[in-house]
Amino acid sequence: MHRFTALFLVCLMLLSLTACGSAPAPGSDGPSQPEAPAQAETPETDAPAEPEPEPEPEPEPYTILDPTVQPKGGVRNGVTYVPYDGVVEHLFFHPVVAYPELAFDGDYKSDGIDDWMVTAGEYLKILQSVYEKGYVLVDIADCWSEQTNEAGETRMVKNTLYLPEGKKPLILSYDDVNYYEYMLTNGFTYKLIIGNDGKLWSWGLDPQGKEVISRDLDAVTILDKFVEEHPDFSPFGAKGCLSLTGYEGILGYRTQTDRENWTPEREANRQKEIEAVKPIVAELKRTGWTFGSHTWGHISLNTRTYETVTADMQKWFDEVGSLVGETPVLFYPFGGRLDGDDVKQSGPAFQWMQQHGFRIFCSVGINSWSKCKSDISAVICDRLHPDGTTLRGSDKVLSWYSQFYDARDIIDLDVRPDRGVKWTPKD
Ligand SMILES: [Zn+2]
Q1: In a domain, 255, yes or no
Q2: Do 253 and 192 contact (CB within 8 A), yes or no?
């Protein structure tokens, strides 16, 4: 049942490429560069020069702790920590909709955004609900570690976590945190920036075209703010793992190459964007965010050839890994499992990824299933997906999410398109 439904979801995702941007056409190196809207390309260049450079604000100290280490005496800051060996839940989001009126304006992207995204308001309600239900954030890379067995082989094993008594662990991951060109005109923020206070803010344009710098419109800054207000939601300082492609740059900065029409001007702009994104990456890492790969071209790993997959990933290492550093986590685009199957086999592309440092391979499913493989040092896992498809889902779908929230309390039917719901109303 579980596998069947996961495959069904993958098929759904293949049918609607909208959520993750257009996938590159087969045989191409990536989508051709769409014309950016006038305001979208390096929006700050035309801004008036700053009068005086403000002194760099001192960043507030941020502590990151290892959840696999029990605090001395079992108590830290008056909180008792106890061992936990149960399921580690894993929810993933796409970028959240900042302006529903732009996202759901009836154009050809509307239904895809409705299917695969949540709004900023829905996202905040989900965070509030999982917090109230006793979940605490853990980093995905802390949940398993590599050990050498009696035969001298390295294998991944699930870690014991030491959690505040009564709490349950939750991994959050975020796919396609690239601020794709199509998103900029469809109700999403444009990029992350560092504000005058040294914190991360989002930059973008509202439906009237007015510049908006906010911490309430973007999945990253909303979680940052939520953890500031509820520090016990993240007892170890963990936030989420950001899953990045490379074909339209990262985090709203156009750091990618493009084989077509490359000019010295475009390369100079690319270098400028690379320099601009570095402090953003550093601040994310400093405040508990980590990074994973989503392939360079958002390619379907279940159907592409070994040659295509490895060439694409080399490009990811060159253009994205070089900026965010090494990562053990690979998030499958469209949930497509490597070599068509990574459960029964560890195929050639899976082995290549493992040899290139990946240990945690994430697909999509109906629960937080995970399996440490016996033939190779790797763990494969599924993630649940709060989005329009599951918020509108049947009573059965709602039951998969009931431990986190009641979808009927979360979905904002006032701003989403009128596409119906499958669940039974309350009362
Ligand atoms: Zn994706």
Answers
A1: yes
A2: no
